[in-house]
Amino acid sequence: MSDTPNAEDRSLDELRHEIEDIDREIVELIARRTYVADTVAAVKEERDLPTTDEGQEERVMERAGENAERFDVDANLVKAIFRLLIELNKVEQRESR
């Protein structure tokens, strides 16, 4: 028997609170990713490397799809989110140069 209550045993308020916590964690992870991406941009600028690295972008998208499958999440949704993150990082990198 599991210690985790099933959906029927949990109130709507408890479930919504859990979603709020998850949303905060997602934003925190996006902030961490953005910080690291900014650091990558600084290294690229120091080394006079191009903003765009298509090979790296392909690897990120491949990992996103693999992780989606591993967690049984729609791969198209996950890839769309990662595409947006990548594009936002590229815009920031271009603007900072």
What global shape is seen?
A: elongated
The first-to-last residue Cα distance is 57 Å
Examine the coordinates and then state which fold CATH places here, giving the name of the CATH topology. Answer: Chorismate Mutase Domain, subunit A
DSSP strand count: 0
Q: What is the radius of gyration computed over CA atoms, rounded to a whole number of angstroms?
A: 18 Å
CATH hierarchy: architecture: Up-down Bundle
H/E element string? HHH
The fraction of residues assigned to DSSP E strands is under 5%
Question: Which stretches are poorly predicted, pLDDT < 50 over at least 5 residues?
Answer: none
Q: Give the rounded overall mean pLDDT.
A: 91
Which class do the helix and strand fractions yield?
mainly alpha
Helix content: over 70%
Q: Which class in CATH terms?
A: Mainly Alpha
Tally of alpha and pi helices: 3
Tally the structural domains: 1
- Main sheet attributes: strand count, strand direction, barrel closure: none
CATH homologous superfamily heading: Chorismate mutase
Region (Disordered): 46-65
Organism: Halorubrum tropicale
Pfam family, one: CM_2
InterPro entries: Chorismate_II_sf (IPR036263), Chorismate_mutase-related (IPR051331), CM_dom_sf (IPR036979), CM_II_prokaryot (IPR002701)
List the helices and strands and how they pair.
Blueprint: H1 12-46, H2 54-70, H3 75-96
Short characterization:
The protein is mainly α and 97 residues long. The protein has helices at residues 12-46, 54-70, 75-96. Residues 6-97 form the Chorismate mutase domain.
